[in-house]
Amino acid sequence: MKVERGSRLRPSLSIEASLPGMVCGVDEVGKGSWAGPLVVCVAVLAGEVNEADFLARDSKSLSEKRRELIFDEVARQCAAWALGSATNTECDALGMSAAQRLATTRAFDTLAARGVRPDSAIVDGRWNFVSPNVPRVLMRVKADTESLSVAAASVLAKVSRDRLMREESSRHPHWAFGTNKGYPCNKHRNGLREHGVSPLHRVSWAFMENLGLRR
Fold first, then answer.
1. What pLDDT is recorded for position 56?
2. Model confidence, pTM
3. Are residues 59 and 67 in contact, defined by beta-carbon separation less than 8 angstroms?
4. Statement to judge: residues 116 and 24 lie in one domain
5. Structural domain for 95, as ranges
6. pLDDT at position 215, please?
7. Residue 88 phi/psi, 5° resolution?
8. Which of 31, 53, 143, 193 could form a disulfide with 150 if both were Cys (CB 3.0 to 4.6 A apart)?
9. Does 68 reside within a domain?
């Protein structure tokens, strides 16, 4: 299978094999966005997954079209997966750290309601926003390029949030959410200058002051 350009490292199950019990991968998307929710995905791979056949990669290394094409197959290759989110208003009220923990707890609570309780988690990054939802947490910078579980969580989170922001774009057309997904770009800045903020914007973020906007 051809690996898409930009995906320098093929993720594997090596990290998963080193951890006890049921292992999940955790990744988030939307942390740096100006609008929309923060979304966390927890993914547990199916036991029969074959590394050579697995399609997930670090979502940032895949085009939007490619992520959409593989989404259903990645979901099928998971024994279980769940999303948790914190709204833009929750991000404003709580701050990003607490909002990230809230979204993560919601994802694990959804899994627990389905009878799925992982024993170990592989988490992308340096900051542990997952404990105490899992007994053992392994933090790994760029885990989405090394771990198949985290790569799956990365794709599922990214595609799910992108779809939501495209839907919101039809209700809030001035800020080009369909293309920027709430992240900074010229069209987004122009929309803010001309129309102010939408109900989806995080009004405590620095862009408000930088662009001279009011809540």
1. 66
2. 0.92
3. yes
4. yes
5. 14-162
6. 77
7. -60, -35
8. 143
9. yes
Per-residue pLDDT at 123 exceeds 70: yes
9 lies in a domain?
Answer: no
* Helix, strand, or coil (residue 122): strand
Residues 104 and 204 in one domain: no
Contact 175, 33 (CB under 8 A): no
- Enumerate residues 6+ apart whose C-beta is below 8 A from 129: 28, 97, 100, 101, 104, 123
Residue type, 37: P
What's the Cα-to-Cα distance from 44 to each of 96, 148, 192, 214, rounded to whole Å?
A: 25, 10, 39, 43
State mean pLDDT over 107-130: 97
Q: What are the DSSP calls for 30-82, one per residue?
A: -TT-SBS-EEEEEEEE-TT--GGG-----GGGS-HHHHHHHHHHHHHTEEEEE
CA-to-CA dists, residue 82 to 177, 202, 213, angstroms = 24, 24, 36
Would you call 22 helix, strand, or coil by DSSP?
coil
C-alpha 148/C-alpha 146 separation (Å) is: 7
Angle at the Cα of 63 (from 175 to 190), degrees rounded to 5?
Answer: 15
Can you give the CATH number for the domain in which 124 is found?
Answer: 3.30.420.10
- Separation CA 43–CA 108 (nearest Å): 10
Residue 140 has pLDDT above 90, yes or no: yes
pLDDT of residue 2: 36
Domain count, the chain: 2
